[in-house]
Write a structure and sequence with these properties.
Elements (H helix, E strand, L loop, with lengths): L1 H5 L4 H13 L4 H8 L5 E7 L4 H17 L4 E7 L4 H6 L7 E5 L5 E6 L8 H10 L6
Helix pairs in contact: 2-4
Length: 136
Amino acid sequence: MWDYVDNIKNSTVKQTIKKRIQEYQPKSYVIDKLSSLTDRFFFVVFATEWNGECRAQLPNLAKVFVAANNAALNIKVIDFDENRDIADEMNVLRIPTIIVHDRAWREIGRFVEKPQHGGTLEEDLWGIIEKNVKAA
């Protein structure tokens, strides 16, 4: 995640994203759930710096991962423009797209563009994850 942010070429966009990361306050009840996960999940994120929804959602995603502070949650951001072949292979049509995989690398859900039903990014991601968490 951080290598993507650090490699943003437009310095204004980079500073805006860093500022939004600092300012965003994710829903604490979701962070508590993400923090306590023991099952591994992998997040493949397709984004690009020129897209407004990417500039809006990536800082929120970064803050969620920092706040959760859970090594079981793994994230990789892929530049959509530089990796169109991979995006096509994974059927990514809009950005940002966050593809969530379980520990066996089976796709279990997607977050596309913005939160649905008036929720937040972290609530949408938790909605995907909670259906796939093993019962204790």
